[in-house]
Each structure stands twice: as structure tokens, then as C-alpha cells.
Design goal:
heterotrimer; A mainly alpha; B alpha/beta; C mainly alpha; B: alpha/beta; Rossmann fold; six-stranded mixed β-sheet; 9 helices; globular; C: mainly alpha; MetI-like fold; 11 helices; 0% strand
């Protein structure tokens, strides 16, 4: 709570800076527009106001972005192809499906790594190496390959979302499953606990903080995957497709609106997981 | 100005010192009405149960804590001025050596900060290593040394810039008894050789009696001085003195004082 | 020591070779169409015959990636040091930094193209934004991490803020700084390549991938990905090597 004042101060300052930059960056173009229209008798405040309301600004002003967001979210029917709600729901579906399967695979892999020693030594280096490959670069290719199998629509994007989310979840869960104090593990052994008993009674509860932390990262990664995948196959819509469309047609404000929506979606997902996490951990008496 | 001359004779002059901490459980009186005068060249031990304020007193001398009331003068100055004047060397319970520096480089750290030129730094470091019998280990890293050796390096570091005052907070607490005995003897020789004034916080009665010229027994809640015991053993003493009746008599007096202090406990 | 290192390499290397061999065998035997998944040998051939193209793409993407990486990390570190003296600014900026790290930053690529043009500068700008926040957050955490005892020691020497910063807190922060540098190698590669999906002159790894996919020349796509994989791994390994030299003293190296 004590971050509220500093945070709002910083945000307010950023807001003011944004307006300043918008005037500064848009003015040259606005001057040209005035000149082309034969308008030479404008004051600097006229210039500033005009610069903040351009149709194709270099940097849209905050109120322009807000206006576009209002227009595309509230003022447009949710099932229209112009609505950001429509595109956001597409992206959200891909993200959630991908995140779900990515989590399943990630957690399963983590359990396997913790219980089957040789698996870690042969597999982990490759998994780590795979993350140094910009997996996202595979997005266009995965889309094409799945297309050959007549698998289109959301699936390729969900696959990419799943691929991007599984690694942070695996790494986090391996750390979490290994986090119990060695003393606790020894104690379980004195009870002749089986591996699965140790898994469920000790390792899983201990890993909860790591679980929620890595789920947050995984969810954000899944969203990024879905958005980028949509850029490469934009016919099916989604926020990434809107980003691409805005970029092709020079619709700056549209790009910003799509970006803000994606950011809001990401924030909402991570925030929701964080909330569930805090409540669960508090209930289980973890220090939060 | 006889008053001023008198206070200048004392390296440390504590008058009616009080310090209250604000904690989440309410105010805690760490020190209450402490009066103490320490002359040059003394070795003064502070002993007492936890919460008696011995570490707090040491930290206040070092300007690491601010008193709530009362006065304290170090070398005739306020603790703050004394600190900026580099009047003392501090040794913590843990060696607190920087792992990215070699032992020699660690000992040179205060010298670097104080702007001592490179050549002089080298001579002082060599002298410091010699003083604590660590010559030849200058190029090692702290984590390559045993706990006892690290603590010796920490003492060498505290002495490298030749302060008058040596402040030590349970420096040997984490070491085993044999190493501790050895280091006690080495510290005594070092003190004898350099003539520093030493303030030494400890939990160990034999250690306090062996090393000190005076022992300050403190008691908790509120932290205050319970007893001050003079110790006049010959300066060239060895560890054998711990078996003598004179030693045991002083140790018993200390123990008695501690027990009395403790009787306010639950 | 060397024998241990080789033994460490054994299992993953063996695993990799087995996978490659299986891949090759399945491709030939099952006759998997090259459009779906070319055999490793076909990819290898493609790499060897396309060196000039691959090299030109590599150089173009590297221009954006390396300059963005250097600027973004430097900026993150410098800002962390600048806000070090102001707990107020820290409490305002760091939660923001954490939030921004979770966002799809890559989406700013089209905006950067609009501001900096089609060439590598816009890609560098994307990389700067992507690497700035992880470095800022990690460096800030690192700077706050020096122990109370060590800081008290500096006080007893009458050390100034600058001396305490340079002799204690910055060295102590290095492990965190390198953590961010390693994370950022991946982010930089992703940023540089994916930013090219949004518009680029006719050269660059991201460009190559997206256009060759359109031509269904999947072997060329895989060839480019292979180059990207090697580059990414080498980059990460380089940073890890520098980290080892700079933070050899850290407990994590001794607990082996």
C-alpha cells in the first residue's frame, strides 16, 4: 500500500511526459499539414492542439488512445470484426488453451525430471538450449505445417502459446518440487514414505509459491505466443492480427489501442493468477 | 580548564546514556542511564545476557546507533565526528570479508577508502598480515580460509589504518574452543604490542577475565551496568593463568554479577 | 575437472545424436514430405549451399540485436543506480517495471518501425525496450542486497556514498546483473527476429523465415532456425563465461 503514492506520482509524471512527447513528435508533421492546407496563421497553442488530435500521428495522445479504445470496445458490437472485444476473445481463447496444455506438460515434465534422474542430465540441457532459440521464430513454420494437415484456426496459435509457456513452468516447478528442506525429506524417509506419498504430502505443498510464480510467467508467455502467432497468420483475427493490420494501413491509433488491449489482457491474467495465489498461500499459512 | 583536560584523558566518556528502540511490541529500553569512563590503553570487556545492551553500547560508541538521551564522547569528539575521523576499527561477529577481494585486498579496503597511496597500502597490509600470523595468505580468497583465519583477517583489517580504538563484538563466538583459545592469546599479544584501547563484547566468562583490564557486567530490561570489576593480571600472562585461584576468584565475581543481573528474569 | 566436464556433455550429446538419427531415419523411411519436416541431411545441405544468404541475414539481425542489447542493458543498469538514492522513485518505478516485463512488449514493433524506419534501428529499439526492464528490476534488487554488516563496516570507515556504491554494493549486485544479462540474451534474440516480422528490408533472419514460409521452402526456414539456435546458444554461453570470470567468488559456484 505504501507504493500507492510513489506509483501514482510516477504514473502521473509519465502521463504528462506522454503529452509532451506527443506534441514534440507530431508537430513537424502537423506543420507540414498546415502548410499543405495553406494555413500559415496558427499560434503555437493551435499547433499543439492540432498535434494532439491528428488522424495519423507519430505518437497518439492519451485521449486519442482512450477514445479509440472506447470506440472499439464499447461503441462497437462485440461480434463485429472491428470490435476489440471480438479480437481479444480470440486471443484469450488461444492463450488459455495453450496455457492449459503448456502447464500440464510443464508440470508433468517437472515431476518426471525430479523423479527420473537420468532424464534431467540428458534432457535439461536441450530444453535450456531450446529456449535460446527464439521459439517464436518457429511460429510461421508451425502454422504452415499444421495447415498441411488441415489443422487451422486456433490450434497452431494455441500450440505456440503452449510451447512458450511450458518452459518457465517446468523450471519453476522443478525448483519448487526440490525446495523442501533436506531435513523434511529425511523425516519422510524415516516414515518409509513412498515416492508418491512424498510427492503429494511434502513436495507439492512446498512447491506452491513456485507454482504460482511460474504460472504467472507462463500465462504472460502464452499470451505473447498467441499474439505473435496471430501476426504470422492474421486471417483468423486476434489482437496480433489487429497490430499487423494497423501497421500495414498506417493506423497508428489502432495499433496503440490493440497494444493496450493486449497489455490489459496480460495484466488481467497475471493479476488473476496472483490473486488466487495470494489467497491460497495465505490459507496455507505461507508467508506472503 | 581542568574539566576539559579531565575528559580529554578518557578515550571514551559515557554520561547517563539511554537508548530506547521503537519495536512493533512497544518501546524497548536497550540502554538506561549508563555511566562509564575508559582510559587509553585499557582492555574493557562487556559481558551479560542477551538484551543487556552490550552490543548496543558498542554500536553507539561506533556511531552505528543514535542515543535517545545522555552524552558520549570518543576522543573528546562526538561519535559521529570520531567515526569520520577514522578513530576506531570495528570487528563484527562474522568476518564480513568481501568474497570478491583477496585477503590482502580486503585488509587494504579501509586504506583505499581513506585515500592511502598504493605503496603505503602494500606495507601496511604486509604488516597487518604479519601481526595476525597470516603472512603468505594474502593472495587467497576469504572462502578458501577457515573461520578462525577469516576472523584474524578481519582483525588485521580493523587495525590496518592504525586506529587508537578497537571495537569488537563477540569476534570469536562462532569458533570452536581450541581455535578460540589460540586467538585469545594472539589478541592479548597484539594488544600488548600495539597499546590500543579495546572494547570487547563477549558471552564467555573465561575469555573476558583472561583478556581484560576491566570487566563491565551488564543486566537486561532495562540495559544497564550492574558491576565493574578490575582485573590486574600480569601483562605477559598465558592461558595457564586460567587455572590459578586469583583467576577463578575474578571469574566467580563475574559469574555472581551475571546471576544477580539475571534474577530480574522470568 | 576436464573429465567431469566431458562426462556432463555425454548424456545430452548422446540424446541429441539419437534424436537426429531417428529424425533422419523416419524422414527417409516414412517418406515424410519435405514441406512438413525435411530430413536433417536436407537441412544440412541447404545450410551449406546458402551461406551467403544466411550470412547476410545473420549480420542484419545482429545489427539490431547487439546494439539493442548493449543500449538496453546499459540503460537499465544506469537507471537502477540513479534511482538507488530515492526510495520514493524505487517504490514507484519497480512495480511498474515488473508489470511491463509481463506485457507483450514485442507488440511495440510496428510502432518502432513507424518511428525509426524499416531498417535495423527499429529492431534495436524493440530490443532496448525488451531488455531494459528485466535489467532494471534485477539490478535494483541486487543493489539492495548487500548485507547490513558489510554496510555498517563501510560506515565505520567513514566511506562516502560513492565509495560504498563502487566498492561494496555494485560488486555485490553483479550476480543479479548477470542473471538479467542472461535472461536478456533470449529476449534480445526474440525481439530482433520477431520485430522483423513486422516489416524489414529484404534481409534478416526474421524476414527470411516469414518469406520462405510463404514460398513453402521449409528447409530454408529450418536452416535459418538452425543458425538462430546456434547464435542464441553461443550468445548465452558467452555471457555465462563472462559471468563465471566476474563472479567466481559467488556461493553458487562453490556449492557444486
Amino acid at each position: 500500500m505504501k507504493s500507492v503514492l510513489p506509483l501514482s506520482t510516477v504514473l502521473a509524471a509519465l502521463f504528462v511526459l506522454w503529452y509532451g512527447f506527443a506534441v514534440w513528435m507530431n508537430s513537424p508533421l502537423q506543420r507540414d499539414l498546415f502548410a499543405n492546407a495553406g494555413n500559415t496563421a496558427y499560434s503555437s497553442s493551435d499547433l499543439a492542439v492540432a498535434a494532439l488530435n491528428m488522424e495519423r500521428p507519430k505518437l497518439p495522445a492519451p485521449h486519442q488512445v482512450a477514445g479509440e479504445l472506447y470506440h472499439l470496445i464499447i461503441a462497437t458490437a462485440p461480434d463485429s470484426k472491428r470490435s476489440l472485444v471480438y479480437h481479444a476473445s480470440i486471443t484469450l481463447q488461444e492463450t488459455l488453451i495453450g496455457f492449459f496444455f503448456g502447464s500440464l506438460f510443464g508440470i508433468g515434465l517437472a515431476v518426471a525430471i525430479v523423479f527420473v534422474r537420468p532424464l534431467e542430465r540428458s534432457l535439461m540441457p536441450w530444453i535450456v538450449a531450446s529456449q535460446t532459440v527464439p521459439i517464436i521464430a518457429l511460429a510461421p513454420m508451425i502454422v504452415v505445417i499444421l495447415n498441411q494437415f488441415d489443422i487451422g484456426g486456433m490450434t497452431p496459435k494455441a500450440v505456440i502459446a503452449a510451447y512458450l509457456s511450458f518452459f518457465p513452468i517446468t523450471v519453476g516447478m522443478v525448483k519448487g518440487l526440490r525446495s523442501p528442506d533436506p531435513l523434511q525429506l529425511d523425516l519422510m524417509r524415516t516414515y518409509s514414505a513412498t515416492s508418491s506419498q512424498m510427492l503429494f504430502k511434502l513436495r507439492t505443498p512446498s512447491s506452491l509459491p513456485f507454482f504460482f510464480a511460474s504460472m504467472k510467467i507462463g500465462a504472460a508467455a502464452a499470451l505473447v505466443g498467441a499474439v505473435i502467432a496471430e501476426v504470422t497468420k492474421s486471417e483468423d483475427g486476434g489482437l496480433g492480427a489487429r497490430l499487423l493490420a494497423g501497421s500495414y494501413y498506417g493506423q497508428t491509433v489502432q495499433i496503440w489501442a490493440a497494444l493496450f488491449t493486449a497489455a490489459a489482457l496480460s495484466g488481467a491474467l497475471v493479476g488473476a493468477i496472483g490473486l488466487v495465489g495470494r489467497l491460497t498461500l495465505r490459507k496455507m499459512a505461507f508467508p506472503t | 580548564m581542568p574539566e576539559a583536560a579531565k575528559s580529554d584523558d578518557f578515550v571514551i566518556d559515557v554520561t547517563d546514556l539511554s537508548l530506547t528502540f521503537e519495536t512493533s511490541d512497544g518501546p524497548v529500553k536497550a540502554l538506561s542511564g549508563v555511566d562509564l569512563k575508559i582510559a587509553r590503553g585499557e582492555f574493557v570487556s562487556f559481558i551479560g545476557p542477551s538484551g543487556c545492551g552490550k552490543t548496543t553500547l558498542l554500536r553507539t560508541v561506533a556511531d552505528l546507533e543514535q542515543p535517545s538521551s545522555g552524552s558520549i564522547k570518543v576522543n573528546g569528539m562526538t561519535p559521529s565526528e570520531a567515526r569520520l575521523n577514522r578513530a576506531y576499527g570495528y570487528v563484527f561477529q562474522a568476518p564480513a570479508l568481501y568474497p570478491w577481494r583477496t585477503v590482502a585486498s580486503n585488509i587494504a579496503l579501509p586504506l583505499e577508502i581513506m585515500g592511502v597511496p598504493k605503496a603505503e597500502r602494500a606495507t601496511r597490509v604486509a604488516r597487518g598480515l604479519d601481526l595476525v600470523n597470516l603472512s603468505g595468505f594474502g593472495n587467497k580468497y576469504p572462502w578458501q580460509l577457515s573461520g578462525g583465519m577469516q576472523q584474524r583477517a578481519s582483525i588485521a583489517r580493523a587495525l590496518s589504518f592504525d586506529p587508537d580504538l578497537l571495537l569488537m563484538d563477540e569476534p570469536f563466538g562462532a569458533l570452536d574452543e581450541i581455535v578460540r583459545d589460540m586467538l585469545n592469546e594472539q589478541l592479548l599479544r597484539l594488544w600488548e604490542k600495539t597499546g590500543k584501547t579495546a572494547l570487547f563484547v563477549t558471552h564467555s566468562i573465561p575469555e573476558a577475565v583472561f583478556l581484560s583490564t576491566r570487566i563491565v557486567v551488564m543486566s537486561p530490561r532495562p540495559g544497564r551496568i550492574h558491576d565493574v570489576i578490575e582485573c590486574k593480571f600480569p601483562r605477559d600472562r598465558t592461558l595457564d593463568i586460567r587455572e590459578t585461584p586469583a583467576f577463578l576468584e575474578v571469574a566467580n565475581r563475574v559469574r555472581h554479577g551475571l546471576r544477580e543481573g539475571h534474577s530480574y528474569d522470568v | 575437472m576436464n573429465a567431469n566436464r566431458l562426462a556432463d556433455l555425454g548424456p545430452p550429446l548422446l540424446f541429441g545424436i539419437v534424436v537426429l538419427a531417428l529424425w533422419e531415419a523416419i524422414s527417409r523411411i516414412a517418406g515424410v514430405p519435405a514441406i512438413i519436416l525435411p530430413a536433417p541431411s536436407a537441412i544440412g545441405l541447404r545450410i551449406v549451399t546458402s551461406v551467403p544468404t544466411l550470412a547476410a541475414d545473420f549480420v542484419q539481425t545482429m545489427r539490431g540485436m547487439v546494439s539493442g542489447y548493449l543500449i538496453g542493458n546499459a540503460a537499465g543498469l544506469i537507471v537502477a543506480i540513479l534511482i538507488d538514492r530515492s526510495p520514493f522513485l524505487q517504490r514507484g518505478l519497480l512495480p511498474l517495471g515488473n508489470l511491463v516485463s509481463a506485457l507483450p512488449i514485442i507488440g511495440v514493433a510496428p510502432i518502432m518501425v513507424m518511428w525509426f524506419g524499416f531498417d535495423w534501428q527499429s529492431k534495436a529499439a524493440v530490443v532496448v525496450i525488451m531488455t531494459f526492464f528485466p535489467m532494471l528490476v534485477n539490478a535494483a534488487v541486487g543493489l539492495s542486497g548487500a548485507g547490513a554488516m558489510e554496510r555498517d563496516l563501510m560506515k565505520t570507515y567513514g566511506a562516502s556514498y560513492e565509495q560504498t556504491l563502487s566498492k561494496l554494493r555494485l560488486p555485490a549486485a553483479l550476480p543479479f546483473v548477470f542473471n538479467a544479462l542472461k535472461i536478456n540474451t533470449t529476449l534480445a534474440m526474440i525481439g530482433a527476429i520477431v520485430a522483423e516480422f513486422f516489416g524489414t528490408p529484404i534481409v534478416g533472419m526474421g524476414f527470411r523465415i516469414s518469406t520462405e514460409v510463404g514460398h513453402l521452402s521449409i528447409d530454408m526456414v529450418w536452416a535459418t532456425i538452425a543458425v538462430a539456435a546456434v547464435t542464441g546458444s553461443a550468445f548465452y554461453a558467452l555471457i555465462a563465461l563472462i559471468e563465471r570470470r566476474a563472479t567466481f567468488w559467488h556461493a553458487s559456484y562453490r556449492a557444486r
